[in-house]
Write a structure and sequence with these properties.
By secondary structure, the protein is α/β, with parallel strands linked by helices. It folds into three domains: about 1-40 and about 275-440 and about 485-535, 2-enoyl-CoA Hydratase, Chain A, domain 1 (Alpha-Beta Complex); about 40-260, 2-enoyl-CoA Hydratase, Chain A, domain 1, CATH 3.90.226; about 445-485, no CATH class. About 40% of the residues lie in helices and about 20% in strands. The protein has helices at about 15-40, 40-50, 55-65, 120-135, 155-175, 190-195, 215-220, 225-230, 235-240, 250-260, 300-305, 350-365, 380-385, 390-400, 415-420, 445-460, 470-485, 490-495, 505-520; strands at about 70-75, 90-100, 100-110, 140-145, 180-185, 200-205, 210, 245, 315, 325-330, 335-340, 345, 370-375, 405-415, 430-435, 440. The strands form two sheets. Strands 1, 2, 3, 4, 5, 6, 7 and 8 form an eight-stranded mixed β-sheet that branches. Strands 9, 10, 11, 12, 13, 14, 15 and 16 form an eight-stranded mixed β-sheet that branches. α4 (about 120-135) runs parallel beside α5 (about 155-175) and α12 (about 350-365) runs parallel beside α14 (about 390-400).
Length: about 525
Amino acid sequence: MTVLATALDTGGAAYAQRRAEMLAKLAEVEEAHGQALAGGGEKYLTRHRGRGKLPARERIELLLDPDTPFLELSPLAAWGSESPTYAVGAALVTGIGVVEGVECLITANDPTVRGGASNPWTLKKALRANEIAYANRLPVISLVESGGADLPSQKEIFIPGGALFKDLTRLSAAGIPTVAVVFGNSTAGGAYVPGMSDHVIMVKERAKVFLGGPPLVKMATGEESDDESLGGAEMHARTSGLADHLALDEPDALRQARRVVARLNRRKAHPDPAPAPPPKYDAEELLGIVPGDLKAPFDPGEVIARIVDGSDFDAFKPLYGTSLTCGWATLHGYPVGILANARGVLFSEESQKAAHFIQLANQRDIPLLFLHNTTGYMVGKEYEQGGIIKHGAMMINAVSNSKVPHLSVLMGASYGAGHYGMCGRAYDPRFLFSWPTAKSAVMGPQQLAGVLSIVARASAAAKGQPYDDEADAGLRAMVEQQIESESLPLFLSGRLYDDGVIDPRDTRTVLGLCLSAVHTAPVEGARGGFGIFRM
């Protein structure tokens, strides 16, 4: 075995400082998560319970197999949104959990937030959940209680929102089961969620499913109607046939949903591996590895040693392109190829090494894990003449056309084209998570502000105008502050540029759950088809 050694001094002052900084950042993340858990607030939660209804997360808990984990996705959607009406979490809970032994993608409207109405962030979050379900062939269970679109923001929802219904039909056409459990309102476009699901369960005297409610019907046709005769659960079970199962109450609806899943006859493409040995080192130590100043390097081997099985890692080209660590390991029994930034900058050697390694992983049908801490590809005359553009493009080409599942974790910096080469969001990783220490932008705040200053100074000189140094200092400070705030993980997670900000200590567990999910579908690499590599 090739067990990684550790040089981490857990008793040193530097470790203690890094750990304290990480814990402070984790407290900020926890506070943001608390806002998502609060939903619409105590007033609306009390009203909801007073109607004999369960909150969204309690519905999920009853649905899941006992003592199994739930990997919540995008919990901070809408964080930092300009509109105060868009609550953190976007009035929707999404995630992956086990129902009757089957890994499922679960979505649940939060009716304590504006009646579960969908705003633009709800839509983005739901579309991301469907994307994950489709890529990993996970059955979808929708726990529905929503008044439809948040009408004041309809201009941002109506046209792109049609993709939700398209997704449901594509999932079904691909043989991926869809189940809708309707607890309350499912109106207007929302009526198509049960309408386009394979299996539908409705709660008696609670579920209301109609394209147009009584007021709209009155306006459109002059017809007088009531909720129950127009779209009640019993009517849909006995008359329209939209409901396949009529539940007595919410627990009964969730019990019936479990029975539906039990009868799906689902089999994973890859059986679960045997239990694997844990890392040799304590996950608690992950708190003290990443420095607060991301310009300072850290050894990604210290992270790898604390997340892979037995801390066992076989390095690939360890003496070549040493700013990028590549190698093979297993994680919870699943084979993985790992690419981890060692000193931030990617040179030509690292780029070629990465392209080679990605091709090998595709030949072997092994998923890839990208651990980000990069300031991007190296710039300068020597490196441009040495071909950094074509070599960086080679790495990005390999990432773009790789067919094995990709997982990404942003540990530190993830700037510029390095974010792309390390499989950032635009390159369709199956899952992407951030640590609280992560930052991502086109470049670092100081560099970006400096570039703008140089350009402005050159423009003034070209026009023969004096340059205002005092105004320049103010502009630089403003730009640095803006870019810093927009590169932080809470901001990025709020815009769904990741699937969640995670505690570093949970990294192995989160990645294990993701690897289990991706192995529900076949894992097959590209055989050629990488396009032209400029040599």
